[in-house]
Design goal:
Elements: E1 2-6, H1 11-22, E2 30-37, E3 40-45, E4 50-52, E5 60-63, H2 78-94, E6 101-107, H3 129-148, E7 151-157, E8 159-161, H4 171-180, E9 186-188, E10 194-199, H5 200-211, E11 220-222, E12 227-229, H6 230-240, E13 249-251, H7 265-270, H8 278-291
Parallel strand pairs: 1-2, 1-5, 5-6, 6-7, 7-11, 8-10, 9-13
Antiparallel strand pairs: 2-3, 3-4, 10-12
Helix pairs in contact: 1-5, 2-3, 4-6, 4-8, 6-8
Length: about 290
Amino acid sequence: MNILMTGSGGFIGKNLLHYISKNNLFPNDTLFFVKREKNNLFCLNSKQNIYSLSDIHPNVVVHLGAYTPKSGVDCNNINGSLSNVVFLNQLLSTFKSIPTKFIFISSLDVYEISTEPLSEHSNIIPISLYAHSKLFCEKTLEQWANQNNVVLQILRLGHIYGPGENEYQKLIPLTIRNIINNISPTIFNNGLERRAYLYIEDCCRLIVNAIHLEQFEGPINIVSENSVPIHQIVSSLVTIGGKRELSIINKINDAPIRDIVFDNRKMKKLLGLENVNLEEGLRSEFDYFASL
C-alpha cells in the first residue's frame, strides 16, 4: 500500500508521521509526503527520494494540507480560505491513477454555534470563510469519491492539543508560554466555560484507524468527551510549571459563557477511545515548550 500525505509539515502532520514511525506502522508500505513549490506539487518518500506526484500511484491519501487559522482573527482570511479549495482541486486533478481510499481532515467549525453537545447530527452552518472552505471541500470530495468509487472518510477535528502547537495563539500554548516567562496567565469570567481537549497522539491514532474503514461512514468528529472548566486547565498548567507564586488574572467582560462539549459516540464506535488523560497531556506539552 502506498500512502500519500499532504500537510506533513504542520502540527497534525508532523505528529502523525512521528506516530507512524514510533509505532512501526505500515512497515512494508511506502509513505509519500506532498510538498508545494511555486504552485507545483512534488513528493518525498520516507527515504527522501523526490518523485513527481503524477508518477506515483497512492492507494490511500491522507489530506491534511490546508490553510488553518492560528488565531480567531485569521478565520476569515480570504486568500487562505480560497487556497484550501484550490489545493484540493489541484491535488485531485494530478492523480495519474485514482486512490482507493481518501481521508480528509476537516473541522468542527462547519457546525452551527450551539449550547448543546456537538455531534455529527448538529446543524451545519459554517461560522467563517475557513469553515465554508472546509465544507466546500467535503462536498466536493463526496461527489468525486462517489463518481470514482473511492472510500472516503471525513474527519472533523475538534480541540486538539499537544507538542508542536508553537504557531497557535490558543489557550493552552499561550498559557504555557506565559508561565514559562513568569507572566501571570489570564482567564475571563472566572474561567467557567468548559472545553474538551483531545491529545495529539490520540488524534493521530484515530486518523490511522480511519484508514482501515472499508466504507464511507459519513463525517466523524474526532473529539474528547471529557470537558473541564478553563480555570481548571490554567490552574493545572501553573502547578505543572511549578509557578504557584503566579496569580491567575481574572477579567470580567460581557461575553456570554458558552460551554463547548462533544458527543463522540460515533468516533468511539468506529475508531476507538481516547487514551491520554488531560493532566498527562498537559504535562507533555509543557515539557515540550520548556525544552525549546
